[in-house]
Here is the input.
Amino acid sequence: MRILLHRADGLTDPWVRDFAQVLPQAQVVVWREGEQIAPCDYAVLWCPPEELLGQLAQVKAIFLTGAGADAILKYGHALPQVPIIRLGDAGMAVQMAEYVTHAVLRYFRRFGEYEQQARHGVWAQLPQYDKSDFTIGVLGMGVLGTPVLDALAQFGFPLRGWSRTPKQHARARCYAGREQFDDFLAGTRVLVCMLPLTAETDNLLGRAALSKLPRGAYLINVARGAHVAEPDLLELIGSGHIAGATLDVFRTEPLPAHHPFWSEPRITLTPHISALTLRLESIRQIGAKIRALENGESVSDVVDRNRGY
Ligand code: NAP
Ligand code: GLV
Here is the structure.
């Protein structure tokens, strides 16, 4: 069995080494730009360059080394009609729960303000927020969004979740579809975006949606930068309608040096690290799915091209 491996960062050796452990029967062939290689059975990649698409026509399945499929689905009809299988958790859910919990508690317990005070030698206790005023709304109740709701439930925050199809959650009030979007937003004090980027969710968080949050709301975006209309967010932060934002993802990554987000003190930003791909966990998951496919079994996390995720 031959597996085509592409990594944009060029760091292929540890992947080849771990694949040899997990799937010793496979020969991993590293694809590099400008190269033609003999046909492979499977491909393992993330954000492939267009030139690589021609090599994918004969594979039985394409495995993504990430949770989101937007970076490959952007090629649309140029993609071969083979199953595309994304990562399902593979160690990302706990990282998302850590990141979002940290950001929520930072706002709720006012740690950012205490850090500022300490920098200026100020000893002053600020009024504590009331948890009943701190409803957290999670956009996306999937593999990653649901464990984030579960983690936040332990602190007793009022919770709500929004998805495309109706869902149930033991501790969160559930909303579904565009018809219930405005109700979901009204009263959400901390909005957490954990949606896939699709034609329906692109630019979802612009002036119209963000204005429906109560004054003094916070935004946490750990999904994709294109979910947020960046100038609208800056404007609403400037007016005080949005009190602060924690952003892990941006329309252009790395965030350009002169981007206004860098100098906005009410924006906390991180370089797309809220849930990193864990190599060994990912290879174990991909290896198990390759074995299942070889045995004629079905596998989870197959991307639905019509839905876009
Ligand atoms: P998932 O399991 O596919 O869950 C997606 C959720 O979004 C589902 O609940 C889905 O609704 C909902 N959804 C999709 N389109 C919608 C729409 N138009 N309206 C309302 N809800 C909609 O995906 P996941 O594994 O949780 O990952 C989510 C995203 O996180 C990824 O696509 C990726 O962009 C992002 N991510 C970011 C990082 C990072 O480091 N920043 C890391 C990993 C993932 P249904 O349940 O009804 O289908
Ligand atoms: C990272 O952003 C992912 O989708 O896995």
